[in-house]
Amino acid sequence: MLASDPVIHPLARPSLRPSLALAALLLSSAVSIGTAWAQSAPIVTDADIERARHEQPHITDQDLARARQKYRSPSAAELNAAPVPTPPNIDALPQPKTNTPVDLEALAKGYSAQSDAMALAPGLATGPGLFVFISLSMPQATLQRLLNQAARAQASLFIRGFAGGSLRATVAQVQNLIGPRRVAIQIDPQAFDRFAIERVPSFVLVRDGTRPVSCASGTCAPPEAFLRTTGDVSLDYALEHMQRTAPQFAKLAEGFLRRIKGPGN
Fold first, then answer.
1. Is 156 helix (H, G, I), strand (E, B) or coil?
2. Residue 237, CA atoms < 13 Å, CB-side half-sphere
3. Is 132 helix (H, G, I), strand (E, B) or coil?
4. What is the pLDDT of residues 97-127, one digit of tens each?
5. At what angle are helices 140-153 and 235-245 packed, to 10 degrees?
6. Residue 107's pLDDT is what?
7. In the beta sheet, which residues pair with residue 229?
8. How many whole angstroms from its chain centre is CA 196?
9. CA-CA distance, 145 to 129, in Å (whole number)?
10. Distance, CA of 123 to CA of 253 (rounded, Å)
11. Rounded-to-integer distance, Cα 54 and Cα 46, Å
12. What percentage of residues in the chain have a pLDDT greater than 70?
């Protein structure tokens, strides 16, 4: 007896019905989406196509010929006829007043010496300070006396600018003045404005922490923070005058006077 295929009643196939239903649903959705897109898509007419053709620029051979004529390249004859710029006349350029070469080694040594002196001048950065404002045109005897006392007092000297407008001449003159002494000399025109210096020599004694760094004009440091006196006098005389006329600065002046006079005085 042969085995026969099992007989399955149509109602006993529940898995086929959901598949058919799902396929019908997907087909219906696709038809709906296609119909909606077709209804919303813009309709392009023959008039739209014709209008687009007219709006596009049409370049003819005549247009190209006119452009070539208007923006033509120069011919070989025109290039040859163009003026050739003449080379500059080097001999006509301004010449230096002197043919003596700048001694860069001397400048470097002068800068190095000044840097060492600046590092040894505590009045430039911290603590009370003593500043002496001078001019290189002052008498040599006066400058030498002030340099000697400034070196002992650890004071800083200021000049307004270059001697004769020359950096080289200024460095040479300052080196000759300083000699073996270790004293700081700064070229600082703004310092003259910070403390309202109008004449030289002038002497400025500043309290601890008074270091104005910029000033357009006039006195930038608070008046109560520094004391200024002017006159062709020695540094110790200026300090003694400050002691007598401004008791609030007497202690600061005494400290610098002791340095000038040395131990035991």
1. strand
2. 9
3. strand
4. 666 665 556 555 555 555 554 444 444 446 7
5. 60
6. 55
7. 203
8. 28
9. 19
10. 13
11. 13
12. 65
